[in-house]
Specification:
Length: 214
């Protein structure tokens, strides 16, 4: 059983190969790097060389939920996203409210590590322990509200059955202050991390409301 407040697993997504794998999280790591920001920083510093450019496929884009994610505490749906960002070409972490942090936990994961670069535009769908990469070419040019609505309709999800965080045209075109926006207005806006999604050709990440309990 995982340390209290954690699911004990992360999802690793390699956009270059299309491979998605699960990894167990060590209890010692969870104790030493508390919260979404701590866990994201640990993996970024472990896996990305300081000389790696922000738009290099070797850069990581890390979505994390902390030990309070998915609890009854106010604000427990928030999440952190960590990467090397274009505004500084250095490490950056941004937080957003909404449902994604809670829903990620309900799907069975504490974190998602995205690496590589896709050959075509994709989005990541996570639904109660199942993850898949889906075509996103039809979403290009759409703003984040349009993208959210189209993805929910495509997946057959009602308003609060899934949390969609995506990029709009700014992120697609690697504008260096592009944000990641979801749940109709919640924004991870620091250090241009939406441009990192664009560099990886990842239009959106989706977490459905699963049935796992942290």
């Amino acid at each position: 059983m995982a340390l209290g407040g954690y699911m004990g697993k992360l999802l690793r997504v390699d956009l270059g190969t299309g491979r998605i794998t699960e990894e167990m999280l060590d209890e010692g790591v969870l104790r030493d790097y508390v919260g979404g920001m701590g866990l994201g920083a640990k993996y970024l510093y472990d896996e990305v060389d300081p000389k790696t450019p922000w738009d290099d496929p070797a850069n990581r884009l890390i979505f994390t939920s902390g030990p309070l994610g998915g609890t009854r505490l106010d604000g427990s749906g928030s999440y952190s996203v960590t990467s090397k960002g274009p505004l500084t070409d250095g490490a950056g972490c941004s937080q957003a409210n909404g449902y994604f942090g809670a829903y990620l936990k309900f799907c069975g994961y504490d974190a998602v590590i995205v690496q590589g670069k896709a050959k075509r535009w994709l989005y990541l769908s996570i639904d109660d322990g199942k993850a898949e990469l889906r075509e996103a070419g039809h979403l290009l040019g759409k703003d984040t509200w349009e993208t959210e609505a189209l993805i929910k309709a495509e997946l057959g999800k009602k308003e609060k059955q899934a949390s969609v965080f995506s990029i709009g045209p700014a992120g697609e075109n690697l504008v260096k202050f592009a944000a990641i926006v979801g749940d109709k207005g919640h924004v991870a806006g620091h250090n241009g991390l939406g441009a990192v999604m664009g560099a990886k050709k990842l239009k959106a990440v989706v977490a459905a409301r699963g049935h796992r309990i942290p």
